[in-house]
Amino acid sequence: MERxxxxxxxxxxxxxxxxxxxxxxQMAARLGDRGFVRLAERDSWSLKPVGSYMVVRGGSLVxxxxxxxEYLEAGLRxxxxxxxxxxxxxxxxxxxxxxxxxxxxxxxxxxxxLAPWFxxxxxxxxxxxxxxxxxxxxSRLVDFQRPVAQIPSLAIxxxxxxxxxxxxxxxxxxxxxxxxxxxxxxxxxxQRLREQHADLPKSRIHAxxxxxxxxxxxxxxxxxxxxxxxxxxxxxxxxxxxxxxLLACDRRQPTLLVCNDHEEVGxxxxxxxxxxxxxxxxxxxxxxxxxxxxxxxSLLVSADNAHALHPNYPQKHDGNHAPRLNGGPVLxxxxxQRYATSDQSGALFRRFCDxxxxxxxxxxxxxxxxxxxxxxxxxxxxLGVATADVGCPxxxxxxxxxxxxxxxxxxxxxxxxxxxxxxAPPAVAAESAP
Length: 434
Ligand code: ZN
What we know:
CATH class of the largest domain: Alpha Beta
CATH superfamily of the largest domain: Zn peptidases
Bound molecules: zinc ion
CATH topology of the largest domain: Aminopeptidase
CATH architecture of the largest domain: 3-Layer(aba) Sandwich
Strand order of the largest sheet: 1-2-3-13-4-14-18-16-17
Distance between the termini: 42 Å
Number of helices: 12
Number of domains: 2
Low-confidence stretches: none
Oligomer: single chain
Mean pLDDT: 95
């Protein structure tokens, strides 16, 4: 697939995925259209060779090709990413009424950069759990789709120091303004659900997991369209690159994509990368105690965006390890194991990039700055699988509007496709003679 077609699909995916649940639904629909069979964890499975399957758990998804090769011979080629992004989540009892405005109280999810959330045309999306008249609980996705809320800034005239030292009080300053009357949020939500789901039975709402999002669509910007800008590039960009690689690969090798929720809050949950989801699937793929032997021949490429060199703040990067936008995917290295890349897994990823004719960059954080982390070290530690942490460079990580290079997601997808197609058991290829 050429870059422009790839980017058009990526922009569409970003706009249709305002929450992890929506991202997973989008991926499941696209994979389903291309022959992936959806499995339920509660069922017993009979998997066919050269079959394509997917499993959804909450805001997380695993999709895989069983391939035509024996797992014990071939090992597994795995790509990991995360579906969640820092955001503002609607509290369980959110209704506030102040100064003739219906406001919604929110909880900050993850390490959000909060200032960019002010004065944005916000909407709301997520999952709602309801009870029908027979007492049955069920869940539905909801998305208001149009701008319905805002966090208005305080005018400069009322705070002359705003440009010098305005701090954000997370409890006081972030309440969303939703309406000029005081109708309860739950009744507005039920109306929206009825609009979106014509088949919704008579029911009442019990609970929700709903977040605010910016309605400005994803776009290509820059005089020559060289930048790609959107909310949630970290890390839906990697989910999309991984999914397109899974769709583009030749399906001969055992290959897998895992996209986890809750990375931004530490991954320790039933659907997070520090939970059981991936292991539970792998144990069903590799029964009879064979999993450790399969994993010894496997490789995980953990794809999550990296900090690109920022033109206003070049001093924030180490000079030799400062990736630039449109310079290709980044290998992330950290001696203190905040990234799981080793010399061996890094060398393997470089070879996949070489084979795909994709340029590759390397990131190491400055010694006086802490770097972030990814699902890589957690999955590597949990499974004992060789792992490379990689990702596309971007600016403004954890802002409500992030910017990446227009070339890089497509380049990452090409390198991941080569990885999925590689014939030699990947980890074995890295074994060095003593
Ligand atoms: Zn991330």
